[in-house]
Amino acid sequence: MIHFTCAAHALNRVAVKRRAVSAESTVLKLRQEIKSLTMQISNLKLENQSLRGEEAAGGQGYYNPPELQSHRLAQELRNAASTAEHSLRQLLTGVDNLRIMAASLENMHRIEEKNDPFSNFDEDAGPAL
């Protein structure tokens, strides 16, 4: 009977080990599932905020997958860069125009002096013979 009890204990230990391994495996799977569900919750919260923001801003309020959102944002950035570049070109043209005007004003006195060739003569002197 003692021999039978030892065999029963050995079988019992094997069963306990199997249950422990199974429980550890289940815990690991559940932790992974919790992590996955937590990520899904975070993504859904972000999506929900995005949708609420679009509706508040007068948008259509439909779901855009991240790829479409990235594409839309990239296009908006390209448009902003083009607008900024156009504005900078206009500013540079304006700067050039200001420099030309300043140079013209500086040279205006020289032009006025050269246009009146008789300014050096006395008006009372009369014609030269």
Notable characteristics:
2 domains; mainly alpha; 129 residues; 2 helices
Report on the structure:
This protein is an all-alpha fold and about 130 residues long. It has two domains: about 1-60; about 65-115. It is built from two helices and no strands. The chain has helices at about 1-55, 65-115. It is rod-shaped. One of its GO terms (biological process) is positive regulation of protein localization to cilium.
Summary of the model, kept short:
The chain is an all-alpha fold. It has helices spanning 2-56, 66-115. The chain is built from two helices and no strands.
The tally of structural domains comes to 2
What proportion strand?
under 5%
Q: How far apart, in Å, are the first and last alpha carbons? A: 160 Å
Globular, elongated, flat, extended or rod-shaped: what is the shape?
A: rod-shaped
Structural class: mainly alpha
- DSSP strand tally: 0
Q: How would you state the average pLDDT, rounded?
A: 78
Rg result: 44 Å
N-to-C SSE string, H for helix and E for strand: HH
Report on the biggest sheet. Answer: none
Number of helices: 2
Which parts are unreliable, with pLDDT below 50 for 5 consecutive residues or more?
Answer: none
Helix content: over 70%
InterPro entries: ENTR1
Organism: Aromia moschata
GO biological process, one term: regulation of cytokinesis
Protein name: Endosome-associated-trafficking regulator 1
